[in-house]
Amino acid sequence: MMSNRREMLCQAVNVLTGLASIGCGLASPALAQAPQRRREVVVNGKRVRTVDLHAHCHVPEANALMGLKVQLQSLVVSPERIKAMDEQGIDIEALSLNPIFWNKAEPDLAGQVVKLQNEKLAEICTAQPDRFVGLASVALQHPDFAAEQLEHAVKGLGLRGALIGGSVNGEELSNPKFHPFWAKAEQLGVVIFIHPQGTSELNISVGSKGTVFWKM
């Protein structure tokens, strides 16, 4: 059992990047080839490899299927993004997409969106494996389908795990209906990043005299 949060985070980074670590140093001889302009992070006198586990991007073609127009160019993987990573001292980003956009889609549409997103992620990560790894999209509102998508993303596309929301259309992740997905993730031994979000249990209302009522 992992003794603390630091150890848990180190293990997650190792799974994502495929690196061996000593004290979460993540040092690698390959870093000697890093561009001189890249900001370096040093801990206890040692150069360490930094991994951004929460790095979103978007796939315009998938957005189009959902009828969405995302104008945030900062979410496009481009030379400008690499430059920003270098300036911030980020060596690797674990790219993912926010599941809020397709978590209510029917199986056919959700399948098309997830396929496009995962294939694009794999393409980006294959082209620049020293800078990016990918966390797959899954249609968790359809748990058995999501398990199949996760397996294909990992075994077929080389992605390192998946990103899911903190709940699925109001249903808690502990609901037995999601067991097929969790079982597949355990079988594959991959990282599942649960994206932070609000929950209905935290919604509150204020009475006429300032009394706070929790909506449970």
In short:
The chain has 216 residues and is of the alpha/beta class.
How much is the radius of gyration in Å? 19 Å
Tally the beta strands. 11
Proportion in β-strands: 15-25%
What is the molecular shape?
Answer: globular
Count the helices. How many? Answer: 6
Task: Supply database-style keywords.
216 residues; alpha/beta; two-stranded antiparallel ribbon; globular; TIM Barrel; 34% helix
Structural features, described:
It is a single chain. This protein is α/β, with parallel strands linked by helices and 216 residues long. The protein has a single domain (5-214), classed as Metal-dependent hydrolases (TIM Barrel, Alpha-Beta Barrel), CATH 3.20.20.140. Helix content is 34%, strand content 19%. The chain has six helices and eleven strands. The chain has helices at residues 5-17, 60-65, 79-88, 107-127, 143-156, 179-188, and strands at 41-43, 46-48, 51-56, 92-96, 132-136, 161-165, 167-168, 171-172, 191-195, 204-206, 212-214. Strands 3-4-5-6-9 form a five-stranded parallel beta sheet, with helices on both faces. A hairpin with a 2-residue loop joins strand 7 (167-168) and strand 8. Helix 5 runs parallel beside helix 6 (179-188). The chain is globular and about 50 Å long. The two termini are 33 Å apart.
Q: Can you lay out the helices and strands and say which pair or pack?
A:
Blueprint: H1 5-17, E1 41-43, E2 46-48, E3 51-56, H2 60-65, H3 79-88, E4 92-96, H4 107-127, E5 132-136, H5 143-156, E6 161-165, E7 167-168, E8 171-172, H6 179-188, E9 191-195, E10 204-206, E11 212-214
Parallel strand pairs: 3-4, 4-5, 5-6, 6-9
Antiparallel strand pairs: 1-2, 7-8, 10-11
Helix pairs in contact: 5-6
